[in-house]
């Protein structure tokens, strides 16, 4: 097995973008291989038997799963500070990642699966409830952002940004710029979501709203509401 570091990714995939951001943040030198998810090469199962992206070949080993890979990025270069040393803060970061995924992203996926105007209010209510809680979590860390911890960019921002960007893309292009009420109610949440969206590693690893929407429209058969 070669000692080359190879990152297997796909532009559409938010999980893969998590790893991409983390590798950029630590300045990991790697070769990038784009996997066509609609026509996966047969050799890819030797890299990741689950045949999902992201995966990384490093030091002759193959590692998969986005949350494992962003933790690996932190472990390779702890001095960058993507995860602070304090065990309680580390737990709070991991909790925020899990919370966003189970409350915000799952409400969004649920809405996409049954994409109708009459479901918008329920979706909006779910976002408002989640952002109220996230506001508390953010204020517990720091009174201002732009990041989850305040000024230090961390794994919480890395794990959440790719999902937020894709959600926003659908809000802008398929929901006529819809925004949940809570974003105006909680300036710390708004500042945080803007802060993570404009981080260079996040912007540079994002393929753009149009690309995401075209792909979603094809995959989910969506059109603007
Ligand atoms: N739990 C995995 C999820 C990765 C995942 O679902 N990747 C999707 C693309 S976004 C994939 O590779 N799908 C291909 C397939 O399921 O065949 C992670 O966090 O890395």
TrEMBL record:
Ranges where the GST N-terminal domain occurs: 3-81
Residue ranges of every copy of the GST C-terminal domain listed in the record: 86-216
GO CC terms, sorted: cytoplasm
Listed name of the protein: Glutathione S-transferase
Segments crossing the lipid bilayer: none
Gene Ontology molecular function: any one: glutathione dehydrogenase (ascorbate) activity
Upper classification of the organism: Eukaryota, Fungi, Fungi incertae sedis, Mucoromycota, Mucoromycotina
SUPFAM superfamilies associated with the record: GST C-terminal domain-like, Thioredoxin-like
Alphabetized InterPro entries for the sequence: Glutathione-S-Trfase_C-like (IPR010987), Glutathione-S-Trfase_C_sf (IPR036282), Glutathione_S-Trfase (IPR040079), Glutathione_S-Trfase_N (IPR004045), GST_C_5 (IPR041695), GST_omega (IPR005442), GST_Omega/HSP26 (IPR050983), Thioredoxin-like_sf (IPR036249)
Annotated keywords: Oxidoreductase
Species the sequence originates in: Phascolomyces articulosus
């Amino acid at each position: 097995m070669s000692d080359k570091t190879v990152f297997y990714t796909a532009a559409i995939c938010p999980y893969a973008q998590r790893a991409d951001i983390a590798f950029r943040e630590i300045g990991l030198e790697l070769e990038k291989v784009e996997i066509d998810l609609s026509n996966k090469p047969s050799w890819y199962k030797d890299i990741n038997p689950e045949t999902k992206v992201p995966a990384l070949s490093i030091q002759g080993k193959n590692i998969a799963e986005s949350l494992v890979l962003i933790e690996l990025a932190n472990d390779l270069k702890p001095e960058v500070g993507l995860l602070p040393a304090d065990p309680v803060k580390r737990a709070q970061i991991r909790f925020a990642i899990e919370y966003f995924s189970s409350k915000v992203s799952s409400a969004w996926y649920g809405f996409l699966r049954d994409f109708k105007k009459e479901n918008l209010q329920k979706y909006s209510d779910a976002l408002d409830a989640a952002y109220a809680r996230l506001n508390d979590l953010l204020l517990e860390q720091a009174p201002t952002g732009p990041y989850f911890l305040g000024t230090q960019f961390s794994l919480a921002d890395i794990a959440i940004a790719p999902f937020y960007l894709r959600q926003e893309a659908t809000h802008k292009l398929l929901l006529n710029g819809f925004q949940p009420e809570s974003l105006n109610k909680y300036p710390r949440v708004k500042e945080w979501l803007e802060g993570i969206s404009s981080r260079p590693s996040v912007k540079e690893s994002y393929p753009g709203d149009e690309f995401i929407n075209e792909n979603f429209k094809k995959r989910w058969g969506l059109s603007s509401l």
